[in-house]
Write a structure and sequence with these properties.
The complex is a heterodimer.
Chain A lengths: L6 E2 L11 E2 L4 H5 L4 H9 L2 H4 L4 E5 L5 E4 L2 E5 L5 E2 L10 H11 L8 H6 L1 E3 L5 E11 L2 E14 L4 E2 L6 H4 E2 L3 E2 L2 E5 L5 H14 E2 L4 E2 L3 E5 L7 E2 L2 E2 L7 E5 L3 H12 L3 E4 L5 H12 L3 E7 L3 H6 L1 H8 L5 E6 L6 E7 L18 H11 L1
Parallel strand pairs in A: 13-21, 13-22, 16-19, 16-20, 20-21
Antiparallel strand pairs in A: 1-23, 2-10, 3-4, 3-9, 4-5, 5-6, 7-8, 8-9, 11-12, 14-15, 17-18, 22-23
Helix pairs in contact in A: 8-9
Chain B lengths: L1 H49 L5 H11 L2 H16 L5 H7 L1 H7 L4 H13 L5 H48 L1
Helix pairs in contact in B: 1-2, 1-7, 2-3, 3-4, 4-6, 6-7
The chains are: A alpha+beta, B mainly alpha.
């Protein structure tokens, strides 16, 4: 095995790349919280505001925020505590009111989202919901008596795929079928999103003109489409099919939009595999993500095993969080499963000191 | 001279009494009109909610723009109240417009109660359930319409005639 070269593509340690942080959308989140909670969330240190990833509300339990892999309790003055001391306890009213504000007083409008367990709001933020589920004839009818809300703040990381893109570009002006393998919460959707942006926009430095991209965004995660407008930059040549099932979406895009590349999140269904075969027949390239620890893990999954062995995907990007969220563990050639990472990534290796200093800053 | 004054005086009495009678009578037709427009607006809201699943603030705004402004302004009031205050429940916004309904429209308490009952359930459940509530509310409004129409038939003429006749009676007594 080659020398392990890790890179944390979510960090600023990028050096010369075009990395830029999206202006924080924190304020617009506060507008949608119950006023009690919003007041507390407004009091937390500014440094933390820029980094908050999740706001978690659970009935009768302390208010919690998650950032950089760890979680903190909040007290009434907006102070962060690692332990549960005089924390603000979330009431049922807090949850109900926040939920109503989040869905704009219109449960019916987010009915289908609720069935899937989360809703997407303006800005591409996602709200996870748990409570009591009620089953009807067609599966989950509604989630009532909402007990927990998980507000995941979307932060578009523009530029994170700049280092990766050259591995998937196929000369002269095409790309390889690419599979992104990652455990949950390691940034696979974030990477996919930025890859789509790069492919759609083109990379002049690599002499790569943009390609038409179709995105099947089943869970509104990639584009964060709100009222038809993607809240994340996906490039000028991108068409997004929002909320559509992957296999249906792939077929619709091939028929309707003549894309050169189709990007989709979290494949794994038998139907998805069939649709991928269809798209290959139509000469469309695929970029997809999948849950998994490593290539061997993927090979044990019944449906995926088939397409891996068929060597459809020529590039396999493996992510983990061994060095923080978004560590690129390896990039494999799909034909022989050998690493093709080169020295370029040395410059982006993440440092431990960096991480620790973050921890000190928070408190 | 005195005779002319008398005639002018009596004419004024008759005219003012008739106007009063017409005014009392017109309340019935105005209420019927309001109810018809209201039914229209609620049907618009229903299609916004059930068929296009538009979130409420936007749906209310659309109803305001598409509906007859004489009545649809109340939906704008609700939306504005909803947006400017982080209300706990949309019902609070409906309660807020209760006075506006009373002062600006010619509805009776029963009609207003129907509108409020819509506020209690609006937006709080899925589309199937919302449809049931809309059906119920529309049915109630139709009943109110029928009742308003009957009352209009019965009372409008009565009040108008009563106004004219009262005017004449006063004139005769005074003469």
């Amino acid at each position: 095995m080659k020398e392990q070269m890790n890179t944390n593509f979510l960090k600023k340690s990028y050096g010369n790349s075009k990395f830029q942080r999206n202006p924080t959308k924190y304020k617009e989140i506060l507008e949608l919280l119950d006023s009690d909670i919003a007041k507390i969330m407004d009091k937390i240190p500014k440094r933390v505001k820029d980094k908050v990833e999740e706001i978690r509300l659970r009935i009768g339990r302390p208010l919690m925020i998650c950032l950089e892999g760890s979680d903190y309790f909040l007290d009434k003055r907006g102070k962060l505590n690692e332990r549960d001391r005089d924390s603000y306890i979330v009431t049922e009213e807090n949850i109900k009111k926040t939920f109503r504000l989040l869905c704009n007083y219109s449960v019916y409008a987010v009915e289908d989202d609720i069935k899937r367990g989360f809703i997407t709001i303006k800005g591409g933020h996602r709200i996870g919901i748990t409570g009591k589920t009620v089953y009807g004839e067609k599966g989950i009818e509604i989630i009532k008596e909402i007990a927990s809300l998980n507000i995941r703040i979307a932060r578009e990381k523009v530029g994170i795929s700049n280092k990766v893109i050259k591995y998937i570009i196929k000369k002269p002006n095409s790309i390889y079928n690419t599979l992104i393998v990652s455990p949950p919460q390691c940034g696979k959707t974030t990477l996919l999103r930025d890859l789509v942006r790069n492919i759609s926009t083109g990379v002049p430095k690599l002499n790569f003109r943009g390609l038409k991209v179709g995105v099947v965004d089943e869970r509104s995660e990639i584009g964060g489409v709100f009222k038809g407008v993607p809240q994340n930059d996906l490039g000028p040549r991108t068409d997004i099919l929002d909320g559509c099932k992957k296999h249906d979406g792939i077929m619709i895009l091939i028929r309707a939009m003549s894309p050169y590349v189709i990007a989709t999140d979290e494949i794994g269904d038998k139907k998805d595999i069939k649709a991928i075969h269809e798209s290959l027949k139509a000469g469309v390239k695929i970029i997809a993500t999948v849950h998994g620890e490593n290539i061997n893990d993927i090979k044990t999954k019944p449906n995926l095993r088939q397409i891996i062995n068929e060597k459809i995907f020529k590039r396999i990007i493996i992510l983990d969080n061994s060095k923080g969220v978004g560590t690129i563990k390896d990039i494999l050639d799909g034909n022989n499963f050998k690493s093709i990472l080169d020295g370029d990534f040395k410059y982006a290796v993440y440092t431990k000191n960096n991480w620790q200093s973050h921890d000190c800053n928070i408190m | 001279m005195l005779f002319i004054l008398k005639i002018i005086g009596s004419l004024m009495i008759v005219i003012s009494c008739s106007f009063f009678g017409f005014y009392l009578g017109s309340r019935y037709s105005k209420r019927l009109n309001n109810l018809i427009f209201l039914q229209n607006c609620i049907q618009l809201l229903e299609s916004e909610v059930i068929y296009s699943a538009t979130p409420l603030p936007e749906a209310l705004d659309n109803v305001y723009r598409k509906g007859n402004k004489k009545v649809s302004f109340i939906f704008k009031e609700i939306k504005d109240h909803l947006k400017s205050n982080k209300v706990y429940d949309i019902y609070d916004s409906f309660v807020y417009i209760k006075d506006i309904l009373k002062n600006n429209l010619h509805l009776i308490d029963e009609d207003i109660e129907i509108i409020l009952s819509l506020g209690r359930v609006l937006g709080s459940s899925n589309r199937d359930d919302q449809q049931k509530h809309f059906k119920l509310v529309l049915k109630q409004i139709q009943t109110q319409q029928k009742e308003a129409e009957e009352k209009k038939k019965k009372n409008e003429k009565l009040y108008k005639n009563l106004g004219v006749l009262t005017g004449l009676a006063i004139v005769i007594i005074l003469l």
